Amino acid sequence: MRATVMFGAGDVRIETVPDAHLIDPTDALVVVTRAAICGSDLWPYQTMEHSETGRRMGHEFIGVVEAVGAEVRSVKAGDVVVAPFLYSDGTCVFCREGLHTSCIHGGRWGGDDVDAGQGEAVRVPEADGTLVVLPVGADDALMPSLLTLSDVMGTGHHAALAARVGPGRTAAVVGDGAVGLCGVIAARRLGAEQIVLVGRHPDRIALAREFGATDIVSERGDEAVERVRELTGGFGAHSVLECVGHGLSTVTALDIVRPGGAVGRVGLPQEASIPESLPTFFRNVTISGGPAPARAYIEELLPDVLEGRIEPGRVFDRVTDLDGVPDGYRAMNDREAIKVMIEP
Ligand SMILES: [Zn+2]
């Protein structure tokens, strides 16, 4: 079968790899019908050292179940399913607490013996705990939005929960990538009164406004902090969603949160330590977040997608087949595309 393999920075190829097949009785074999390139795939795209064997790519996918192992109960051949960006058993102590990212039997796509999403098919470990059956056909018009449940919409939701967004509160979202845009959707969905987006790309800002952003701050650094304070009565935002992970964006996030407020971090940190330790201490700021347990949020967010209350699939502004994936990486890296959907 064909799948996406990264061999080093800027070097993404579509290669012939061993066919995905069932190994364990808890596996499902899924033929991928939609996949996506993630902003987090751009980190290795920018920095990965050359590898002879390469690394299979992709952790966001929807597909049709082709076969299941003898112990699989919750999905069957023919089901249309979405997978979250990590697999998990659904039964361990952490999964039962809703923290599937810490599943003691879980893991990541593209690891040892596990396929990744940007290819023709995937062996899904722990299929009962991992996959969610979608009550739609494989080519339903809602596919882009359903695909965001595998990662970016769940991650935006996680940022909003970690930042304690709620009715009557002001929210600020740092970052206008797909996760930041989904953070705007999540903040609105959870009742934020004012939603300030800190971002500077015109196409993304326009989408953020449609998703519910009430104010846009396109300045950076200290000027962005000043501007957000002006917009929030001088004190900053109750809830700040940090959706980038760079040092500067993290400093901005920690500087625009008001005393007693909370920062939800979902951008993969690029620094070893959290900045602004002293001022956030004295302002009693809560700093929370981490990788989103996307699996835990699929059931909660799915009805809103199915009934059209949220349309996170609008973050996809380019669609390609497998052959176009290398150029899709380039387009996202060059900020030509917000997010690329793949139809293998
Ligand atoms: Zn688990």
Descriptive overview:
The protein is an alpha/beta fold and 344 residues long. The chain is built from twelve helices and 18 strands. It has helices at residues 42-47, 93-96, 127-130, 143-147, 152-162, 178-189, 202-211, 221-231, 247-255, 277-282, 294-306, 325-333; strands at 2-8, 11-16, 28-36, 55-56, 61-68, 80-83, 86-87, 107-108, 121-124, 132-133, 170-174, 194-198, 215-217, 237-242, 257-265, 286-289, 318-320, 340-342. Strands 3, 5, 6, 9, 10, 17 and 18 form a seven-stranded mixed β-sheet that branches. Strands 13-12-11-14-15-16 form a six-stranded parallel β-sheet, with helices on both faces. The protein has a three-stranded antiparallel β-sheet with strand order 2-1-4. Strand 12, helix 7 (202-211) and strand 13 (215-217) form a beta-alpha-beta unit. The longest helix has 13 residues, at 294-306. The mean pLDDT is 97. Bound molecules: zinc ion. The site of zinc ion (ZN) has 9 residues, from helix 2.
